[in-house]
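Need tokens for this chain, all 322 residues.
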Amino acid sequence: MRDHGGDLDRARAVHGDGDWLDLSTGINRLAYPLPDLPPHAWTALPVAADLAGLERAAARAFGTGGPVVALAGAQAAIQLVPRLAPPGRAAVLAPSYNEHAAALAAQGWTVDHVPDPAAMEGADLAVVVNPNNPDGRCWTPGDLRSLAGRVGRLIVDESFADPHPDLSLAPRLGDLGEGAVILRSFGKFYGLAGLRLGFALCGPQTAALLRRLAGPWAVGGPAIAVGTLALGDEDWKRATTRRLLADTARLSALLDGAAGWPTVGRTALFVTARTGDAAAAQARLARAHIWTRRFPYDPGWLRLGLPGTETEWRRLAAALAG
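Here are the structure tokens for all 322 residues:
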């Protein structure tokens, strides 16, 4: 199943047009303020020096000393990972983001969905999303370093890790050589998903292969310019992290208190709640033109991203109380 959040077309087809509040994704709704971009960001093909500057900014932001490869979103990296080696047996920690298994299967990999890291031992490739989407499970860098020694290649998707730097394997990546690849999203934490920017952190041989597979101009000029600036803005990052952590606790309390939906798990960008009947819960909120995410593998789980403005918070509270 390659279903995703952000599918407002489906919401509108069922529940009509209107002023929709899209909480079906884990994207920060108070995005990084867009700067005025130089004209060449739009009119010229990206040059190597600008791309290298973006990748240096990403390396500093993520705390890694190894190569960083900029790509058109973490999704672009997910599509390339299955091509890093001949197909074999892959283990994906489940339930999790469904594109990992789908991309691997499309390239001929045999994919096993496993419940915990211990079941991954011996796999040619293992995928862990940390923090996990949608149940918020987390693993320490020590746990992941140990796992890396028991599988052929470890893929750690840290798309939701920006507000949780203590979970990141990036500062320890150099110890793992070519045995691990870390994927990072830009659009989720910075709220600029439309830029299509993400990164792969890896060993030098893997980086060279990813660059060949991605081809020239894998990242556009506007994404390079905005990403370089945003990744270096430590004040914004600290303030945003504090807000997101507080807002996640607020959302969890609101869902439990107003609707009686206890939290299954959460990160700093979403809360997954146990509703009893996710289809009915989603439809209830959709009647107020608030869109959420449910999952085919659990009939009770509903995931909500964070509202942004106080107006959005009040709108959600009213829908839950109604």
